[in-house]
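Hi support team,

I submitted a single chain yesterday and got back a structure, but I'm not sure I'm reading the token output correctly. Could someone confirm the output below corresponds to the sequence I sent? I've pasted both exactly as they appear in my results page.

Thanks,
R.
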Amino acid sequence: MQLGQLQTIEPDLIRNGVRIIAVSPDLPENLRESSEKHDLEYTLMSDSGMEAARACGLAFEVDSTTVAAYAQHGLDLEEASGETHHQLPVPAAFLLDKEGTVHFSYVNPNYKTRIAPELVMAAVKNLLDAP
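Hi R., thanks for writing in. Yes, this is the structure output for that exact sequence:
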């Protein structure tokens, strides 16, 4: 899910007692700038070292050809993350309870395919309706 799409469902999530925490490979200062620019309400955390992504099995190495292509389009992975690891996380979303139990997960190795906000809301409602 694109981070901006979270804003469209955030009021419904909050009404249902769900707190959003987004994790990005960008440096904290880049996230702060993005958060202010897009007036984001939810928590946005930096995983520029990719420790959390690796721990969750979400990290992948970006090959040198793709790194160069990204740079040609104005995306410098090293500048964005402050690291030289050339890793990114695959798109993922998790729904956890207060104890940290995962009740729903979405992971897609195709970075172009993000979870739809409607699916997130359906997963939340399903969890809330469960006995």
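A quick pointer for reading it: The chain has one domain: 3-129. Let us know if anything else looks off.

Best,
Support desk
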